[in-house]
Structure formats: C-alpha cells, structure tokens
Amino acid sequence: MRDLKCLLHYLGPYWKDMVIGALLIVIETGFELVIPILMSDLIDVGIANHDMTYILHKGIYMGICALLSLATGLLYARFAARAAYGWGARIRQAQYEKVQDYSFSNLDHFETSSLVTRMTTDVTVIQNAVCGGFRPMVRGPVMLVLGVILSFWMNPSLALIFLLCAPILGVILFYIVHKISPKYHILQKAVDKLNGVVQEVLTAIRAVKAFVRREYEEEKFEEVNKTLMDNSQNTFKYAVLNLPAFQLILYITVILIMWFGGNMILNSSLQVGDLTGFLSYVFQIMNSMMMISNVFLLLTRSFASAHRIKEVLDEEIILTSPENGIKEVTDGSISFENVSFKYNLGAKEYALSNVNFNIKAGETIGILGSTGSAKSTLVQLIPRLYDATKGIVKVGGRDVREYDLCILRDAVGIVLQKNVLFSGTVRENLLWGNQQADDETIWRACRAAQADEFLKRMPKGLDTDLGQGGVNISGGQKQRLCIARTLLKNPKILIFDDSTSAVDTATESDIRSALANLTDVTKIIIAQRITSVISADQIIVMDDGNIHAIGTHAQLLENDPIYQEIYTSQMKRGDTSASSPTGCKEA
Fold first, then answer.
1. Is pLDDT larger for residue 312 or for residue 285?
2. What is the pLDDT of residues 513-523, one digit of tens each?
C-alpha cells in the first residue's frame, strides 16, 4: 500500500480529475439511492390507491434520478480515464528517465525483460486498477453506509437479517484476497521470464534459423508459457470464487428477507412497497460489498506492480556527477594508479588487480590479451561506465570522479565491442556523435572509417534506412558506421574495443592510417590481431585481470612469452601482416 501511495506523487495535474471523478461518483450514488424510496411510495400509495397522477409523478422523478445518475456516471468515466492514462504516462516517463540515469552497475540489477514489463504490464495493471477500481472503491463504501442507514430507516427488523449475513460474505472475501495477494508477485515474475524469452529469440532470430534451433526455442517458449499459464490458473482459481460466494450469500439473504418479510406482510406489519424498496437496498448493499471485494482484488495485484515500479524508481544511482564537477577535460592523458575492480562488492576475486600505467596525450596504445583477461573492463573505467573499486583513474591529470559526468563522457569516444545501431537512417545514427554536423563533416568521418565506399553504393546514401538494429547491413559495415559516429564526437580520447574484428585487414589498415592523422587524440585499441596494434606507441599485454607486460612491438616480441605466443600463433595462420613494421598488409 505504501508503494502505491508513493506513486500518487506522479499524478501531477491529474489529481484534480481524480477528485472531480470521486465527487461525481458520490452524486451518482445519491441519485440511485433515492430511487428505491420513490419506488416504495409509488407501490404503496399510487398503485394501492389506483392514483395514476401520483404514479406518473413518482415515475417522472425516478426517471429524472436515473438520467442524472447516468449523466454523472458518463462524466466520471471521462475524468477517470484522463486521470488513469495520464498517471500511467507520467509513471512510465519517470521510470524511463530513471533508467537513463542508471550506470552499468545499476543495470546489472535488472534483466532487460523485467524493465520492459515494469514499464508496460505493471503500469497497465495500475491503470486498470484506476479505471476499473476507482469507481467501486468510492461508490462501494458510500452505498454500503447509506444503504445500511436507509434499510434500518425502512425496517430495522429485516435489516438485522442483512447484518447477520454480511459478515459471512466479508470473511469469505477476506480469505480470497488473502490467498491471492502473494500469488500476484509470482505471476508478474512469470511475465518477466516470458518477455525475456520472446525478446531473446526475436533479437537472435537469424541465429536460430541458421542453427536450425526452432524446435529448441519452441520448447523453451512452451515451458515459460506453461509456467505463466499455471501461475495464472493458480492465482485466478481463487479469484473466481468471488462471484459464487457473493451470489450464495445474496440469495440466502433474499430468501430469508422474503420469508420474514412475507410473514410481516401477512401480519399487516409491512407493506409490499416497503419490502420491494428494502430488497432494492439489499441488492445495492450486497453489490457494494461485491464492488469492494473486486477493488481489493485489483488493489492486491496493483500493490505487487507498484512495488516492482518503485524498485526501479528507488534504485540508488551508483555513479553520479559531483557537485561543481570539473567542466573541461584539458587533454587526453590517462593514468591508472593501483586500480582494482570487481563488478560485485561481494565477489571474492577482482576482475582487475593492481593496475598501473600512464598514457600521454596523443599516444596510441594497444591492448592485447586472451578472452576474459578484462581488456574491456579496463577501458570502461576511463569514461566512468564503472567506478574503480580501489585506486584512482585519472584523465587529463584529474581523478575521473571529479569531472561532471557528461563532460567526461563527451571527451571520451568509445566504440563498444557489441555494435549498436538504432532504427532509422544512416544520417540519424551518425548524428548521435554530433547533432550539429553537416553533410561534409559526416562524409569526412565516414571516409576516415572507410564507410563511404559502401554508402556511395546505396541509392539513398546517408538517408538509407538501416532497419531495426541495423539489420539491413553487414557486421563490418555496422562497425565502420559505429567508428564514424564516434569520430564525429571529436573526442580527446578514442577507445576501440575490438571494433575492427569484422573488417578485412586491408580496410583495417586504411582505418588505422586515418586514425594516425589524429595526432592530438589519445587512441586505445583493444584487438585480437597483432596487426591492429603493431604500430602503437605502447602495447599492454593483459592476463587474467593483470597487466603482464608493457612495451613496443619489438620489445615485447623479444622479451614477453605471451606476446611471442600470440605472434607465433597468428603467423602460423598466415597473418603475415604481423611482421610488417608499418602494420600494412604485405603483398
């Protein structure tokens, strides 16, 4: 309940719609409660005395009340819908903005499918609770209280029957809500898993088809789908008891009232009109209890969803900009001083251990190492995608934690190991690097990244649509576009995380030549091929999270066994360009 109350903060301007909606419900309920009184008088006076004028007058009054009730109900629907969907939109916006502030460490706490579910399904649950539950939540208690008062006013003896039956219904409904409450948490987690499988298979649909894994993926989907079905059935098998329990108690109450009321009519202590009006109140009171129980069911599920949403909104941002952070990165020099890092503070071992090195501004540094040697982890500490657990990382002579986060990351251009392009045109993707770049600037970056040769062959050039995630181009073309996008930033530090693995050695050599012209930019190149780093000023060889050796190609080839092993293995594969001191492919 506390989580749902906290989310009310996001109502913003829509709280007025909620208040107006509540007032309209109270007015609507008042009109409906007047109708049984008018009906009682119509029967006992108008019909009993065959007074058509009286009957007509009371009938007109009843019709007016019904029309006014209908009008207020329609007005309520308008205000409730605006409040519900406006509230939901603001909650989704708040979640999305919060996720944009997340660091990589924060994102590690949530699965992608879970975040999608929390922004869609969970918000929809809360919207449905307002649309379907706000009216009975207000109407139910109002009708219950006023109905009980009016039923006692009409006939206290018959009202006692209701007071005996109503608690039984209340106990049954409480049991149902109590059983369902914990099951909604399990149900939403099952939705997370289903979304996760769907997202994974759609993202990797080409791999699924290439490896003929359709049956395997279908079985995996069938498993999570069945889990969701079983959880839903297990949850709603209690929820469906709501209506039968209500009908059972309602019919028992009606039978008892008819029995005792009929005897009272025979004894002339009760009139037919009063019994009819009283029965109307009984139906309204029991309906109000049914409404309240349905509200509890809706609220129970919305509590689970509200808690999941609050987890996203309350996640403590691990990386933040300091107050009055430095607003300028003076140069691209980099220094690691006794740096150690672990992804999880509870982990026993460090991913990086006691790393020390210095890079001067404008230097080109290569990083080599086996898979899992923490090469990518190392460079992610430079733009503060993660913070060092121990030690200090410096850029431009200052601790990276002293910089304004946006300024620091704007000064560091990083081409991630996994190439990411977005739906839209080539131009729209490249403008991520520099929104103010004109076509001449864009083409210059494309030429440096060797992307111009395939872009010129495309009918629409920069306006070519890439499709979702860049599905319309090859892996090598994706890499070159990502490099061009990063070059458009004009950063002081360029990081290439194995960013040329999908291009041929000749194209890679051309890219390296273009990068060599950027003399005032510090370049860090993570690679698997020695040809990618052979002409670097310094090469860092990493092994199991540690720096094994630092030196030039000639120094490492003479003294370092790991570098010698990498060189020898690539030479045996026929990568003869490794022997070229210029790094260019030999004939």
1. 312
2. 888 888 889 99
Place of tokens 């409450």: 181
Strands (E), 460-557: 493-497, 522-526, 538-543, 546-551
> If 0-12 CB within 10 Å is exposed, 13-18 middle and 19+ buried, where does residue 579 land?
middle
Q: Which domain holds residue 517?
A: 334-578
Give 87's contacts (C-beta < 8 A, 6+ positions apart): 10, 11, 14, 126, 127, 130
CA distance 575 to 587: 12
- Specify whether the backbone of 330 is left (phi greater than 0), alpha (psi in -120 to 50) or beta: alpha
Q: Which tens digits make up the pLDDT trace of 386-416?
A: 899 999 999 999 999 999 999 999 999 988 7
Q: In Å, how far are 2, 262, 296, 326 from 255, measured between CA atoms?
A: 42, 10, 28, 80
Q: Are residues 351 and 211 in the same domain?
A: no
Measured CA distances, 37 to 32, 67, 117, 277, 352 (Å) = 10, 17, 49, 6, 80
pLDDT confidence of residue 77? 83
Are 115 and 221 in the same domain? yes
Does the structure show a pLDDT above 90 at 341?
yes
The alpha helices in 315-344, defined as continuous H runs, are none
- Cβ(297)–Cβ(239) under 8 Å? yes
Q: Which of 366, 398, 391 is nearest to 494 (CA)?
A: 366
CA distance 585 to 507: 10
- Residue 516: how many CB atoms within 10 A of its CB? 12
Please give the DSSP secondary-structure letter assigned to residue 530.
G
Residue 107, pLDDT score: 83
**Model-level pTM?**
0.69
Q: Are 80 and 131 in contact (CB under 8 A)?
A: yes
The DSSP string of 236-300 is HHHHTTHHHHHHHHHHHHHHHHHHHHHHHHHTTSS-HHHHHHHHHHHHHHHHHHHHHHHHHHHHH
Structure tokens at 32: 């409906």
Q: Is residue 587 part of a domain?
A: no
63 is written with which tokens?
A: 């019709």
Residues 6+ apart with CB under 8 A from 561: none
Tell me the CATH number at 414: 3.40.50.300
Res 515: pLDDT: 83
Closest CA to 475 of 442, 494, 498: 498
- Could you give the number of structural domains in the chain? 2
In whole angstroms, what is the distance from residue 118 CA to residue 80 CA? Answer: 22
- Name every residue whose Cβ is closer than 8 Å to that of residue 328 and which is 6 or more positions away in sequence: 407
Q: Are residues 296 and 371 both part of a single domain? A: no
Instruction: Write phi, then psi, for 398 (nearest 5 degrees).
Output: -120, 145
Residue 436's Cα: distance from chain center in Å? 31
In a domain? residue 351:
yes
> Residue 139 falls within a domain, yes or no?
yes
Mean pLDDT of 524-543: 88
Helix axes 272-314, 121-154, angle to 10 degrees: 150
Q: How many residues does the chain have?
A: 587
Same domain, 358 and 304: no
Residues paired with residue 357 on neighbouring β-strands, in sequence order: 336
Q: Which residue has the tokens 């005792």?
A: 260
Report whether pLDDT(571) > 90.
no
